[in-house]
Amino acid sequence: MNISELKNSMDPKNVGREMYQLIVELYPICRSITGNGFRQTMEILRRYIPLQIHEVPSGTKVFDWVVPKEWNIKDAFVKNSKGEKIIDFQKSNLHVLNYSTPVKKAVSLKELKEHLFTLPDHPDWIPYKTSYYRENWGFCLSHQQFLTLEDEEYEVSIDSTLDSGSLTYGELYLQGEEENEILISCHGCHPSLANDNLSGVSLATFLAKLISSGSHRYSYRFLFIPGTIGAITWLALNEKKASSIKHGLVLTGVGDSGKITYKKSRRGDSDIDRAAAHVLKHSGDPHEIVDFYPYGYDERQYCSPGFNLPVGRLSRTPYGRYPEYHTSADNLDFVHAESLGDSYSKVLEILSLLGNNRTYLNLNPKCEPQLGRRGLYSSPGTNELALLWVLNFSDGHNTLLDICEKSAFEFASIQDAAYKLLKNGLLKLCLEK
Amino acid sequence: MNISELKNSMDPKNVGREMYQLIVELYPICRSITGNGFRQTMEILRRYIPLQIHEVPSGTKVFDWVVPKEWNIKDAFVKNSKGEKIIDFQKSNLHVLNYSTPVKKAVSLKELKEHLFTLPDHPDWIPYKTSYYRENWGFCLSHQQFLTLEDEEYEVSIDSTLDSGSLTYGELYLQGEEENEILISCHGCHPSLANDNLSGVSLATFLAKLISSGSHRYSYRFLFIPGTIGAITWLALNEKKASSIKHGLVLTGVGDSGKITYKKSRRGDSDIDRAAAHVLKHSGDPHEIVDFYPYGYDERQYCSPGFNLPVGRLSRTPYGRYPEYHTSADNLDFVHAESLGDSYSKVLEILSLLGNNRTYLNLNPKCEPQLGRRGLYSSPGTNELALLWVLNFSDGHNTLLDICEKSAFEFASIQDAAYKLLKNGLLKLCLEK
Amino acid sequence: MNISELKNSMDPKNVGREMYQLIVELYPICRSITGNGFRQTMEILRRYIPLQIHEVPSGTKVFDWVVPKEWNIKDAFVKNSKGEKIIDFQKSNLHVLNYSTPVKKAVSLKELKEHLFTLPDHPDWIPYKTSYYRENWGFCLSHQQFLTLEDEEYEVSIDSTLDSGSLTYGELYLQGEEENEILISCHGCHPSLANDNLSGVSLATFLAKLISSGSHRYSYRFLFIPGTIGAITWLALNEKKASSIKHGLVLTGVGDSGKITYKKSRRGDSDIDRAAAHVLKHSGDPHEIVDFYPYGYDERQYCSPGFNLPVGRLSRTPYGRYPEYHTSADNLDFVHAESLGDSYSKVLEILSLLGNNRTYLNLNPKCEPQLGRRGLYSSPGTNELALLWVLNFSDGHNTLLDICEKSAFEFASIQDAAYKLLKNGLLKLCLEK
Predict the structure, then answer these.
(1) Sign of torsion, CA B6 B7 B13 B17?
(2) pTM above 0.90, yes or no
């Protein structure tokens, strides 16, 4: 089955529920851009898809960056003078500044406060903070709790290691009919945050699972990587492969209840941009399309000028536009099976469109062919106008998506028309440009 | 006299009345895509213009099509059991399914109904139906009458022939100063229907009559053809001539009281598209301009990708947007001398513009020439600003129409300015690109 | 100091007051397109800037034109039969038709009226009229006074000369780092009219004074010329130099209280057009941008098709849109120090932008460089997003202004980001295209 057929064979609502369950399983793990949490996450994904796990040693030069030391953590807490654990890593891994160096000492409230992070505007929530490239230690807590801290001596303990090791990432390559690739990339480095980005990880996993079960025109490459440094590392180590990427999507924040937001690639008019716009427009659902800007997630790296890959980003509510972003409120209540299933369905539709977006040549270009003689005129289930659009514009220059955009027809109708004309010997497939 | 002068010498209202009279004369004839009705129509037009009549034998292969058998009809009726003619071809030729095979037999009401066509939504009107490429017989009648038919035996009689013969069309070629052609095409195959398309036939006839009485830059080719198969036949037999067509108009439905609608050529920005838009915009009259779509009248064939000719379509209310379309209500009351005269006037203005749309070169391109010394500065009847627009943009790249579009001047002013500058030796004509 | 620094070192309000004082000094002089009034004006400007004065002999052929005879005037009046001077050149030099031939004779009211010009719609104001290329004499007066003229004999006297001499203009060339030039042109031929164009003369003078005190990338050429014939003369005598002009501004009517109007060059998208649009948009002040049209001031000559220079025009309220235009009401009350200072400030900002509008190449184009390591990440006073825009689009094709237009950032932010990246070795300057 090709992707269209696979898509039609699935119930997105069911898949949404499975995606949610995977998020539930992954949620408690303390992940970071390196370390065992990330490895454990990849192992769980390998129950769904045959991920290949790569380990890139600390210190490896990747363009302007260096793969950092590997971080691991066993436990962390702050105790008050009565010996009570008032901040406890075991309760939420967000309590620790991600990449905290090990520490174990008594500190005054004054000193402690220099290492505490809170969200005064959301006094109930714990913020998510990191310090990957500047060695530091710290704790994150609710502002409410912060206000109750008394002027006494505290015991701080972070049982972490920051040593030479490696950066881990997962990769799945699915050979298609063509060497040309579609890249699906998601960052899997965030600890207990559901929407950002276990939602993207889960979506990519279920897409990979489905696509690997059928046949497909394009080859597919799925990357489960730590944000920024992971994309940079993959690009640095696979510079030549990058040129095979004909379309790509970064998947992040795809589980909240907001409408879908598609951010265009740097090129702005690449096929992935137009396919996403087409699918979202014809879905009838609210959505938003935004122009490229050089900020955000790993599209920043894929769309850096030295690569300029046709990679867009699909999210629901964009980061920074929901207050739960990078806080403990981005939890299992913030993502929904229904939203996950809808994101899954729409991405599949985009991928299906790309796979079917061919250029044909009208073999009877002088005047219209006689459709009636071929049973294509006013016959039930045949959209005659769609046939005429495909015939008139299949001059070897227009893809089916071009014809959709000219005619305002939905892709499925134009594709169906092309299929009928092809079957009747009125079209032939053009080679890719 | 050139077309502009000819146009100014005519009163469109008078011509509109003559055009209407021609429609009145042609209206009763039972035409089809072949046969004596079409021939008789051409003979009447030959009283106005020296049409050349072509006969293309049945069976001739024309691209993907074959010229069909010739259809002729003498009489047809349905009699009830009392022997009364309840449907009578002599009262309206729309009563017979156009291209009906001969039949003479007694039928039950049940069998008869399988061959009857009505319009339930317009119970007073007789529909116009054809069956050119699938042999069948039938009658069209008002839905009102249909409801009164009793369950009895009927006698049906269609005295028609469908035999090897020929497809007839009329052609008038007017040699101009250039071999480059303007094509004016209209379909003349409909029986008693006034707007669709005796209006177009009459308009083309009176345009041809006027243009043949003067001199003109472009050569003109007027085609009076059966719809679809006629255009295909002409293109198939004149494939090389088609490349001389630099501008073209399909004229249909130009006599109703609606506003003018111009449908662009497939190219979308050809001179005919821009000339029509300019004339309609500056007319101050309501009008509509629609993009090309691969449906409609013979522009479908002229704009097929193998030809892609710059041929637009000028109509008033488009087919399918007036309920009288293809019914007995498209009668002599539905078209008006005034509308016909207005269509005539606007088409002449478009043709006049095309004939005058030249590219000039400013012979004094460095700084402005001294207009005062030549009596062109602040002199009565001279639009100095138009002179400056023509001088500034006559750099060998812009046509007068380009300059109109940049300056928002009407063509007549820009053309007058160009004429004055040319007379003063400040411009020279550029060769066509 | 470069232009940006010079600009920041000035208080535009102070400069506006100095500009106004210069206008006050120049206002009483009777200027024309030739003659001592123009010369005297240039001598006054030489107290501010080292203008080079050119004298082009009458009769010199300049493209389609000829440098006219030189006009000078000592006095002029009309006396009534009682010997009272009822029109007196000494009271306002607008009273004399500019370029009037000498005359001294007695005339009837009837004959006198053939040589009088008034403004019935503004009965208090004296019009400004000229007759450069058709020899004539005449007087301009208020319509109010005109209505009181009695039917008696008048003595008219114009003590003028119209003889072979020369056309005078002032020029200041400031060598920059590049041979490429910015042209600043203003017409200085109008007599006692403040906005049109002592305002432009004063603005150009103070711009030249400031720019000559610092260093600058482009060479600058300031022209103080008589309108039309002056621009034509300069272009005819400096045809080769014209090709060095990369950007240019005609400055006229920059002292009234209206909003700034920028008229685009004929090219419509040249850097000067985009720079002016950017500065005006980000100023937050009301303004208007109009497309090129081949009428107006000396941009007509610079933008004639044989030159097509990227020269726009900056004014406040455009000529013809204020009733005081070309009348005695365009006086010292009509222009304001504040408006002059604002025009000065905005032109300097445009020139500063052009000087800084470079194209850079990202030296680390594959993925983002690690900004944190260089202290460019989240550091105070650094707009990280601006850095990312400059990095992402500095691919050798985009100028900083291109990046501003894509990102909606103001030029200063983008320029600052480029400066920081350049200092950190992340960019290099591209050679001009």
Answers:
(1) positive
(2) yes
C383-422 residues touching A, CB cutoff 8 A = 385, 388-389, 391-395, 407
Beta bridge partners of B79: B85, B155
pLDDT of residue B237: 98
A52 — contact with chain B (CB < 8 Å)?
no
A378 touches chain B (CB under 8 A): no
pLDDT at residue A125 greater than cutoff 60: yes
Res B349: pLDDT: 97
> By the 8 A CB rule, do C136 and C97 touch?
yes
CA distance A402 to A408: 10
For residue C8, give the 3-state DSSP assignment: helix
Structure confidence at residue B382 (pLDDT): 76
The mean pLDDT of B44-67, rounded to a whole number, is 98
Tell whether A133 lies on the interface with C, counting CB pairs under 8 A. yes
- Please report the pLDDT score of residue A378 as a whole number: 75
Rounded CA separation A92/A193 (Å):
11
The two three-digit tokens of residue B72, written as one number: 């002729």
Distance in angstroms (rounded) separating the CA atoms of residues A103 and A87 = 15
Q: Where are the alpha helices (DSSP H) in B121-199?
A: 143-148
Tell me which residue of A156, A148, A157, A154 sits closest to A108, measured CA to CA: A154
**Residue C243 zone, left/alpha/beta (φ > 0; ψ -120 to 50; rest):** alpha
The span from the CA of C74 to the CA of C157, in Å, is: 11
In this structure, are strands B139-140 and B166-174 parallel, antiparallel, or unpaired?
Answer: unpaired
Give the tens place of pLDDT for each residue, B223-263: 999 999 999 999 999 999 999 999 999 999 999 999 999 99
**pLDDT interval class at A381 (50, 70, 90):** confident
Q: Is the pLDDT of residue C427 over 90?
A: yes
The shortest C-alpha distance from B362 to chain C (Å) reads: 8
The 3-state secondary structure of B322-379, one letter per residue: CCCCCECCCCCCCCCHHHHHHHHHHHHHHHHHHHHCCEEEECCCCCCCCCHHHCCCCC
User: Residues B59, B66: contact at Cβ < 8 Å?
Assistant: yes
Nearest-Cα distance to chain C for B187, in Å, is 45
A176 at B interface, C-beta within 8 A: no
Q: Is the backbone peptide bond immediately before C80 cis, with ω within 30 degrees of 0? A: no
A298-326 burial code (b ≥16 CB/10 A, e <16): bbbbbbbbebbbbbbbbbbbbbeebebbb
Instruction: Tell me the Ramachandran region of residue C228: left when phi exceeds 0, alpha when psi lies from -120 to 50, beta otherwise.
Output: left
Nearest to C252 by CA among C268, C263, C241: C263
Q: What's the residue count for chain A?
A: 433
- Using the Cβ of B235 and the Cβ atoms of chain A, whether some distance falls under 8 Å is answered with yes
- Residues of chain B in contact with residue C232, where contact means CB-CB under 8 angstroms, are 367-368
CB atoms within 10 A of CB B171: 16
Query: What is the rounded distance in angstroms from the CA atom of residue C373 to the CA atom of residue C190?
Result: 62
Other CB atoms within 10 Å distance of the CB of residue A285: 11
Q: Is the pLDDT of residue A432 over 70?
A: no
Q: What pLDDT is stored for residue A353 in this prediction? A: 98
How far is A32 from A39, CA to CA, in rounded Å?
A: 10
Query: Is the per-residue pLDDT at A57 higher than 70?
Result: yes
Q: How far is A304 from chain C (nearest CA, A)?
A: 5
**Please, which residues 307-326 of chain B have a Cβ atom closer than 8 Å to chain C?**
none
For A39, the token pair is: 């490895």
Distance from CA of B134 to the nearest CA of C (A): 60
SS3 assignment, position C237: helix
C42-76 pLDDT, tens digit per residue, is 999 999 999 999 999 999 999 999 999 999 999 99
Q: Which of C228, C293, C304 sits opposite B366 (nearest CB)?
A: C304
